[in-house]
Structure formats: structure tokens, C-alpha cells
Amino acid sequence: MSIVRIGSRQSRLAVIQAEIVKQQIERAHPGVRVEIITMKTTGDKILDKSLAEIGGKGLFVKELDKALLNKEIDLAVHSLKDVPMETDERLPILACTKREDARDVLLLKEGKTEEDLKKKGAVIGTSSRRRALQLEKLYPQCRFVGMRGNVQTRLSKLEEGEYTATVLAAAGLARLGMEEIIGRYFSVKELLPAAGQGILAIQGRYGEVYPYLEGVRDEAAQIAGRAERAFVKALDGGCTSPVAAYARIKQETLELRGLYYEEEQKEYAVDVIAGDKEQAEKLGISLAEKMKKEAGRWKRS
Ligand SMILES: NCc1[nH]cc(CCC(=O)O)c1CC(=O)O
Prior knowledge:
The protein is of the alpha/beta class. The chain contains 9 helices and 13 strands. It has helices at 12-28, 42-45, 51-54, 62-69, 129-138, 151-160, 170-175, 219-235, 280-300; strands spanning 2-9, 32-39, 75-79, 93-96, 104-108, 123-125, 143-145, 165-169, 184-185, 200-203, 243-250, 253-262, 267-276. The strands form 3 sheets. Strands 2-1-3-10-4 form a 5-stranded mixed β-sheet, with helices on both faces. Strands 7-6-8-5-9 form a 5-stranded mixed β-sheet, sandwiched between helices. Helix 8 (219-235) packs parallel to helix 9 (280-300). The radius of gyration is 19 Å and the shape is globular. The structure holds the ligand NCc1[nH]cc(CCC(=O)O)c1CC(=O)O. Residues 79, 81-82, 151, 168-169, 171-172, 197-198 line the site of the ligand NCc1[nH]cc(CCC(=O)O)c1CC(=O)O.
């Protein structure tokens, strides 16, 4: 019996995500036992500052990276959307899990309805510029106020604070078994998700063999994630600028939808590209380049 140690953040959602991977490994490989080791990350500890102020999304993975390098854990499980575009070469993403619902959803404060978002004074709590930018068009009367923390924290803030609603990823709520609190789903056309949303990334050490990941890997999710991340990376790494991307695979074709925000014009555009799924990365880069070129034309006109 071999034992595999998976490192995870401490939040309930992170632990459930690690358990999803644990179950998949144990089901496919009866001779393997998986243990989950949780860690508090800097991103979880500091909640009163924006992520940009304290050093970006990487703060959710830094502690786990260290544990992997020190061989305290064998794998780390992350939401792919939280994995920075620039990853440590020594710690590659080894596999992606089958994608959960990629959409964003609306959560209303008790007693509120979507109609309330169309009234003056309505407040949506979100620290995501990607979400706020797109939601402004759906709910022009709303004000946007920052809201950080894990899913549970945000739900408490929604009930206690001056918010009318907040927006979260469907995937997280589905994994927590909390779908019944969802007010409504936004289609990807209404609100384009973050690159990698709904996909779990399994990270490990370069050069090691991981035979127990066979049967866990999902090819479609891996390809979609690759296209979406290539798009974001080709734009600017997605550090502070809002970007969004969602890829869908049908047979051999990959269709990638991307959102690009132009900081000077303060305008964004959404565009689509389709092509061979084997060219996932190239499609991501092509869409980014096309959109940058087109944004250049907005300035001149
Ligand atoms: N930034 C936090 C985060 N990272 C991943 C998810 C949801 C799960 C996923 O996308 O796989 C969430 C919560 C949210 O944005 O609502």
C-alpha cells in the first residue's frame, strides 16, 4: 500500500476539492491511499487588503509550493483559476480534473430579488474587476463594493453587510452542496468566467512519475485550460487587468471566447476564435493578438 499526501488550503472548499482528487485516485488505484494535509496560506490570512496590494493570486499557492519542494506533500490541488500564469518550472501542473459548471452565479441577500438590482442604491459585493465590469452592463444601477474571503466568509458578509447581492462561481457552490442558495446562473455570454474556472489542477514535482494519476486526468479540461490560460498569458498575465476566457470542445474543434479590457480607453471587448483542439495554445495566443490589434484601432478612431 503506497501513501500519497495531497496538500490543500484550509478552506472547506479547498478540502472538498482535495477530497475529490483523493476519491478519484483511490477509485482508479485500489492499492493507493491518499492523505490530505491542510495549510493556511497568506492569501487566506490577510483579508483586509486587496490581492493586488499583498502580492497577487500567487499567495494562495506559495506555501503549498514550498511544501511540494520540501517533499512534505506529493501533490497539491488548486482551483486552476487561482494558479498564477507563471508557474515554477520545478512544479508543473500534472493533470486537470473534469470541469464542473464553469459559470458564475448570483447570490441575493435574504429577502432581495433580482429586481432589486435594477433599483438605485443596490450594491453588489465583489472584488473581481472581471465580474464588476461585466455586471455593470447587466445592472447599470448597481454600485460595486469589494468583498474578499472564502465562500463561507463571503456568504456571511452578504447577510451582515450592506450588500444586495454577490457573485460566485457555480463550481465552488456545487462542490459545497449549496446549489439551492443560487439566485440565478449567468450564461457565459452574459458573464464570461475566469480562465480555468471549474477545473481543478493537480500540481507535482518535475521529473517524478505519478502513475496513480492515470484515470484522473481529463483531456478536455486540460485542453480548455491550456487555451484559456494561453489567452490570458498573451494579454498580460492577468495580474490586475480584468481578463476572462472560456473554451468549449466539440469533437475536434475548440471554440474559445475571450474578454480583453483596454486600460486607457476603459472599454472591453469579447471575441471568439475556433480551430483544431490540438492547437489550443496557439488559438489562445491568436485570439489575444487579434483583440489587442483591434483595441489599438479604438484609440485612433
Ligand atoms: N477565487 C476563489 C475561487 N477560486 C475558485 C473558485 C471556485 C471553484 C472553481 O472555479 O473551480 C473560487 C470561488 C469563487 O470565485 O466563487
